[in-house]
Give the backbone structure.
Amino acid sequence: MTRGTSGNARRLTTCLWVVLLWVLSSASAGEAMGVTMTEPVRRFILAHPVARLATADAKGQPHVIPFCYAFDGEQFYFVVDEKPKRQTGKPLKRLRNILENPQVALVIDDYADDWTQLAYVLVTGTARLVADQHEYERALALLRARYPQYRHMELSFSRNPIVRITPTKVHAWGKIE
């Protein structure tokens, strides 16, 4: 600041810096600002029944799995369902990782031998367990509408966690129409 700067200008500059620091220090700048997706990207996401979810533990050790998801136009959801899983007495690796490190990525892709048809959407975001029962029921309804298999499973708030992924960045590439 120059010597002749008024007190009001200094206060305004200080306020702007405080707002900028708040945005940058929030859980993620993308959550504070929102992420914009084009309509073709939304259609691509909704047209694919399976994606790949990447999580990492606190030490950065990656873990990638295919998963079923629901997308409400803004956030992704998945449920820990009743499919057989390896019994270890511990929560699933993806949940342990999310609790240690909520930063995740997911990729939804098309592969073809004709490489002019390749496409993917890469989403990075923050994952959290759904703690609100109303949000849980809404997400479960979305998942059941998308996957008939879930309609026959007794999924409940107390036994089957649902995870919400809030995108912070979306990158689309290739033939996305």
Notes: The chain has two domains: 1-33, 35-174. Helices lie at 7-25, 29-33, 39-47, 93-100, 133-146, 148-151.
